[in-house]
Amino acid sequence: MNVRILKDEQAVARAVAARVIKTLTARPATVLGLPTGRTPVALYARLVAAHAAGRVDFSQASTFNLDEFLGLPGDHPASYRAFMETHLFGHVNLSPRRIHFLNGAARDPVAECARYEAAIRRAGGIDLLLLGIGTNGHIGFNEPAAGLVADSHPARLAAGTRRSNAELFDGRVQAVPRRALSMGVGTILRSRAIVLVATGAGKADVIKATVEGLVTTRVPASLLQLHGAVDLVVDEAAAAGLRRR
Ligand code: F6R
To answer: Which pTM value belongs to this model?
Structure first.
């Protein structure tokens, strides 16, 4: 894993935005994989500003988001789809037909996941996948477990994951769905290049385990050690536990 340590959250957002812009400039039809959460908010703000300034064109790009709450339609205000509209999609020139999302309201969640995998394959696979990481090591909604599912699948959320998503539901943890649809670790590892982004002291322990620990399904992000093209971009606070700095 190629580790890049930058001063703070803004420096991380600047570096990752520059990577996305460079990738889209070199290959306008890039297939992007995208996360939601607190971490990418500053990054998306930079991409929106760069687009407004004419520095990046999304017109040929495709996107696949990592996950969505099960039971929520995309127009629900707490859905990840709504989050993406607010922070990115509503402000850049992505073609709506090239924006892909797991449909949390699908009647058959397993079939919906199969549809998503097929759509990723039809698009030629994900060129650049951006990832956040949970404090328990989850990537997408692949929570620590004795075994992990390779492909997109319905997933059960850990209690801590539901707590950290409560903000989207006016602080009501009970309102956070217990299940979600998520890309699997195989979907993630099939991406040609991956950028894992983490900021803040709360991520220091899990970043250490991800980079320096054993490869284990108990820390799903540690599986990224098996991929040849992963850049970890972290701020100093999230890098605090790393041995080699
Ligand atoms: C969200 C996702 C999650 C988040 C992770 C970190 O689409 O896939 O794995 O990336 O929970 O969330 P934040 O950035 O809020 O700390």
So the answer is: 0.98
